[in-house]
User: What shape does this take?
Amino acid sequence: MRWRYLILTLSALAGPARAHAQAGVPGGDGMRADRFRAEYYAEVVQQINKVMGQWRKAWREDDLDRLLRLYDSDAIILMTDEAPARAEKGVHAFLDRMLPETGEIQASMVDFEASGRLAYIWGSFYYDVTGGEQAGKRITGDHVTLFIRQGRRWKIRSQVFRVK
Assistant: This one.
């Protein structure tokens, strides 16, 4: 019987604390945790859109150096039927080969998720081949791009391109 009173007392004490935790973050301004999450998502989406805009512009202008600065030093790029391009040297070689043979690349964001220092987007992509054996062909598919936050900047950590 004493255990029953102990449990009832503990649950009564926990009730207000749980309600307070839902009302806001301890030490915060009373804003609900879900509102903090919404603001975090909005900020991350804005930053990711900025990075992807810089990525498309650098690709369009064949600016390899600017494009490489958007990637983490340990980045990986994986394209259908190709060996992964790993780290700075591999990503450099992959992009150096791709840029002269492709026109502007377009990539959409259909799905997004973020948590802490990591975020990803999933969407479709396409580009037109401008050189080589497949000149004139449009390449389409899906991509997943993973970002990592370094300080206040987001960089591309890995990309997977699945060509259809």
